[in-house]
Amino acid sequence: MKRFQKFEAFTGLEAAIVLIAFVVVAAVFSYVVLGAGFFTTQQAQKVVYSGISQATSNIVVIGNVYGDASGTASNGAIPGSIHTLVFTIGLAAGGTPIDLNQTVFVYQNETVLQTLSPASNISGGGPTGAPPAGWQWEIMSIQNGVLGNTLLEPNEQMTIEANITGNPMNLSVGIPPSDSFTLTMRPPVGAALPIAKTAPGSITNWNLLY
Length: 210
Hints:
- With 210 residues, the protein is α+β, with helices and mostly antiparallel strands.
- It contains one helix and eleven strands, in the order H-E-E-E-E-E-E-E-E-E-E-E.
- It has one helix spanning 12-55; strands at residues 59-68, 84-91, 98-99, 104-108, 113-118, 136-143, 151-152, 157-163, 180-186, 193-198, 206-209.
- The strands form two sheets. Strands 10-9-4-5-6-8-2-1-11 form a nine-stranded mixed beta sheet, with no helix packed on it. Strands 3-7 form a two-stranded antiparallel sheet.
- A hairpin with a 4-residue loop joins strand 4 and strand 5 (113-118).
- The radius of gyration is 32 Å and the shape is rod-shaped.
- The model is unreliable at 47-55 (pLDDT under 50).
């Protein structure tokens, strides 16, 4: 008589358990892989957004830049030269608010490189107030905002008055006729904004810089 050899085989329940285990392992592995992919994508987006915010300036100059040669300049100014700059700034489209109290102003021409400091009353000068002291700047007026605030927000426009004379080393400073200069604004976030202008060939009390 022929003998049949016995083989152990999976039952339906055992097969189902193994299949479920494989599915669970595959699902966990897929979740880990997808999670790592999403995290990498988010980090890449942060890098891109950070790069864009650092590469583009949030501040723009609105209108013209003027040079004031009237009144009494600080010590060291060249006679008949521009000693005060006046210009209006605002935020670029989509720009984030910027605290001007943390913004650095740097003036430069062929012979002078000087950092301006904020005036003691940075936002209280007003259009009829005294100009800032030598190598200082202040907020002269604010449109669509309240004077006394140093945070430049969307839809606001701030008129800045900067005194570029009063060199402590008694060098001849000021902007003479046809002289070129650059006033750079370096906000805490975003790229610097260089304002490069040239004085007219003939200086009057109030000058349009080009």
